[in-house]
Structures are given as C-alpha cells and as structure tokens.
Write a structure and sequence with these properties.
Helices cover 33% and strands 26% of the residues. With 383 residues, the chain is an alpha+beta fold. It folds into 2 domains: 267 residues, Zn peptidases (Aminopeptidase, 3-Layer(aba) Sandwich), CATH 3.40.630; 108 residues, 2-Layer Sandwich (Alpha-Beta Plaits).
C-alpha cells in the first residue's frame, strides 16, 4: 500500500490537469484489475460554467474508474474514492518527503491516494474470504470530487441504486475520528447586466452592475446565520474608472446544515435577486445549484457507523465521529437514501495544503478495519 501511495502521489492529478488524470486513471485501472468483475473508464457528463464575460462554456473533465463485481449477489454495496487533488500541474507542491519514519508528506498522500490503496487492499482481502460471493459491489473513483463532482454525479446516483450501504475513502482525522453529519454546499454565479454611461458627464443614465453585485453580496451574507453559512467569494467585471460598469458576476457559496436550510437559501437567493434587480434597475441571471445536499446523521447512518465502530472495538481501535462543515461524495450518496461512512481512508491531516501528511501505520490499520466491515456486511450483519 505504501509503494502504491508513493507511486500514485508522484503523478500530478489536479482536477483540471486532464493529462495527469488520464495517466492516473490508467494506473488505477491496471491496479484494480486484480479484482473480478467488469472495469471501465466512464466518460464524464457534460458540465457548463459561467465565463468571465457571462457566457456559459463547457468545462472538460477526466474519465472515471467504474468497477462492477457480482451484480447479482444478494447484498450490494458501493465504494467510492477520487483520483483528483487540489494541486494543479503548475503548483509548487509536487514531491514527497518523510517528516519522520512514520509520517509522509506529499500531494494527495492522505486525500486520497492513500485511501485508494486502502480500498483496493481491503477488496483484495475480501476476495479471499469463503463468503465473499454473498457481497456484490460497485467501485467509483471519480476525477472531479475536489471541484464538486459535477461530471460524475450522474454516475454516482446510478451506482447508488439498490445498495444497502456505502463506504467512501476520504481521510479520517489524525486520531482516527470519522466525519458524521455533513453540511451541504451550493455554488452559484449571478450574472448582472446594467447600463454603461460616462462617469462624469451622465452617470445618472448608467446602471452600475458592480454596485448591484456588491449590494447582493452584502444582503446574502446578512441573511445567513446558524445552520446556513454564506461566503460571497468573488466579483468579476467592472470597467475603467470613467465608465459606469454594465457587467459583473458575483460568485457565492452556501453551506446549509439541513434540507430546510437549503430551502431557506434558495428562497433568499430568489427574493434578494428580485429586490436588487428592481432597486438597481439591472437584470440578473442565476447559474449554479446545490451540488452537495446536506448529509444528516439519520437512523440508517447511525446503524452503519455502529457496525464500523464495533469492528474497530474488536480490533482494539476506538472509533468515534463528529459533525463537519466539509463536503464530499458522501453527501451525494446519502441523498440517494444509502447510508454511508465517508472517512474510511487513512489517518492524516493538513489536507489541501503543502503540509498534507499520511500516518503510515494507518494504511494497514484502516485496510483491516475496512475488510472486517465488508466481511460482516457479506455475512448479513447489517440491514
């Protein structure tokens, strides 16, 4: 597992590095070919985004690894991971180094190339068990998780159909704590069109798109609170100082804790866009969605977490969990009605930074935890 992690982390597979993602997908296909079943590199779904000029443009994505094993088995589960990282091809963080004999620093070592090695080792061990035939599974390793899984969301929804449980191999915290309930996430771009005019001669004839975007950002932020955080992240557009700007784009992120909070955010967006459009005499076009629904800790999720915790106890590990504002593919899977533990990967920390590290002992530890949980699923000890 360590050798695989080092090999895979040596390939830059930033979410927009299509060449690196293609290399990574090929390496993963070769590695996962040790498992029985049908393996495929699935094409990404079409994804559009708002360009700086306000027009929609296609955003290319890499292909996704899709493995199906024993689709006719009586018990069906889903396992997911991602091959992309947050580090683009031109990022300075490209190499591995040992911080101490048990701690490896490198891009993606924890998030989640180490997790992919754990998943593969656990599945390979499962295949040696006498009752492995009772358990069928699908594996999705997507190329776009770090940018919200826009091109793999349909594949994830399709794979979740008929599954009784799911594991995702995001990293656990350094002490082994898992993520429980997760907030949702929605990313939006609001394109504002005003009217240009000379800033000195006739500014009253203009309609300032930049000012309207800023007003909207302040109102959305003021409307957030407990259960619903809002981050106005960027305003694009503007004009020379002597021209009233007629174009701006506000980019904003919402993090709702519950489905009700998501509904509140949607209403607030619609109401404030209507109000600002009227007050500033501009037009606004909303683009985006809540790509990550909130993931509550419901009874089904608690039952699956309890199974994992019992497996940990039987191994001498204390397995706990806590809620987080971070999001991942576990949000999307839970929204399909499938209970999911989405931090079955390695123990590590400082992810999404050049200080990211992997605790080496956790490779074997977490693979053992996974295969024990998989065996108990195969034995029908979860429903």
């Amino acid at each position: 597992m360590l050798a695989q992690t080092e090999l895979w982390a040596g390939v830059n597979s930033g979410s927009r590095n299509l060449a690196g993602l293609a290399t990574m997908a090929g390496m993963l296909a070769d590695a996962f070919a040790i498992l029985p079943g049908k393996i495929d590199l699935a094409d990404p779904a079409r994804v559009e985004a708002v360009a700086a000029d306000g027009r929609l443009k296609d955003i290319p994505h890499g292909r996704h690894l899709h493995l199906t094993v024993r689709p006719d088995a009586p018990i069906q589960i889903l396992l997911t991971g991602h091959m992309d990282t947050v580090f683009p091809a031109d990022h300075a963080f490209q190499t591995l180094r040992w911080l101490d004999p048990l701690t490896l620093n490198g891009p993606g070592v924890a998030d989640m190339k180490g997790g992919l090695a754990v998943m593969l080792a656990a599945l390979a061990a499962l295949e040696t068990a006498p009752n492995a035939g009772h358990l069928g599974y699908e594996v999705i390793v997507n190329s776009d998780e770090e940018v919200g899984s826009p091109s793999s969301a349909p594949l994830l929804r399709q794979a979740a159909v008929g599954k009784c449980a799911a594991f995702t191999y995001e990293p656990a915290l350094p002490d082994g704590t898992l993520a429980g309930a997760r907030a949702g996430s929605g990313n939006f771009a609001i394109v504002v069109t005003g009217k240009s005019a000379h800033a000195g001669r006739n500014p009253q004839d203009g309609r300032n798109a930049l000012l309207a975007a800023a007003d909207l950002a302040l109102r959305l932020k003021a409307g957030s609170g407990i259960g619903l955080s809002c981050n106005p992240a960027r305003i694009e557009g503007g004009s020379p100082n002597n021209v009233v700007p007629d174009h701006a784009i506000l980019h904003v992120n919402f993090r709702p804790r519950t489905p009700a909070d998501e509904d509140t955010a949607r209403r607030m967006l619609d109401e404030e866009i209507d109000r600002i459009s009227r007050d500033h005499e501009v037009t606004m076009h909303l683009h985006g969605n809540f790509g990550r629904p909130p993931k509550p800790m419901d009874a089904k999720a608690e039952a699956l977490f309890s199974l994992v915790r019992q497996c940990g106890q039987d191994m001498g590990l204390a397995i706990g969990w806590r809620d987080t504002g971070g999001v991942c593919d576990g949000n999307n899977i839970a929204a399909c009605g499938v209970p999911v533990v989405d931090t079955m990967g390695v123990r590590g920390g400082n992810i999404h930074s050049d200080s990211e590290y992997l605790i080496i002992d956790s490779l074997g530890e977490r693979a053992q935890l996974s295969v024990l949980a998989l065996l108990r699923l195969a034995q029908g000890r979860f429903s």
